[in-house]
Amino acid sequence: MGRRGDWATGRLGDWETGRLGDGETGRRGDGESPSPEVPQSPGPLVPLAPLPPCPPAPLLPTIVMLLLCFLLTSCQLETPPQGVKVKVERVVSGQTVEISNTQGPERLRLLGINAPDWRQEPHGAAAKEKLQQMVEGKLVLLEYDIKTQDNYGRQLGYIWLDGQLVQEVLVRDGYVLAASLWPNTKHEQRLDYAQKWARVQELGIWNAEEPLRLTPAEFRRRQEQQNNS
């Protein structure tokens, strides 16, 4: 923090410490003594005009929401995504769909998100249902990132519908967690902003009355420990 002026540090000027100049202390020239002060007669009292009311202080949540609205809006100004058209035949979970291609049905793991486990009620079922409402039976644009396949043989990608990034909608509305893994981080910032919005609004898994208390990975780990005990 930079040094502030004397008025802010408490090191007051001479006129406030009593160390005034010779002409102000009464220490006049040699042989002179200070002259007594002559009381001044007060003038007529003038009523003060009332002060204008102070504007209400802005609330922090309002500022945060406005800032996030700006950030979310700025994210829309991007180059249109490049990809291939595919049909979503079936929604498997809140983060996995089955798509059709020339070689038959194939599973696609949606990048950038983690959906609640299906046993984490009601959030697991809600995420799957929302994804079904959005894309099941529809043509979507499949956009790839750096790594296009996971260790289970599933394709990895983002899906777009009517100009919207489906993962962003799921995160923004509180159905899933934003979770980008390197090297697939193309839309990481966009999804992080969406999650901040959902948290401020307490939507879905961020609802204070019934939040998602464990991440999907933590939930499955705890289930395994219980099964092994």
List the helices and strands and how they pair.
Elements (H helix, E strand, L loop, with lengths): L5 H4 L4 H4 L4 H4 L34 H16 L8 E8 L4 E6 L2 E7 L2 E2 L8 H13 L3 E5 L11 E7 L2 E2 H7 L4 E2 L9 H14 L14 H13 L1
Parallel strand pairs: 3-6
Antiparallel strand pairs: 1-2, 1-5, 2-3, 4-8, 5-6, 6-7
Structure description:
It contains eight helices and eight strands. The longest helix is centred in the N-terminal third of the chain and has 16 residues, at 60-75. By secondary structure, it is α+β, with helices and mostly antiparallel strands. A hairpin with a 2-residue loop joins β6 and β7.
Key descriptive features of the protein:
alpha+beta, two-stranded antiparallel ribbon, about 15% strand
Number of strands: 8
Mean pLDDT: 79
Please give the share of residues in helix: 25-40%
H/E element sequence: HHHHEEEEHEEEHEHH
End-to-end distance, in Å? 54 Å
What's the quick description here?
The chain is an alpha+beta fold and 229 residues long. It starts with 5 loop residues before the first helix and ends with a helix.
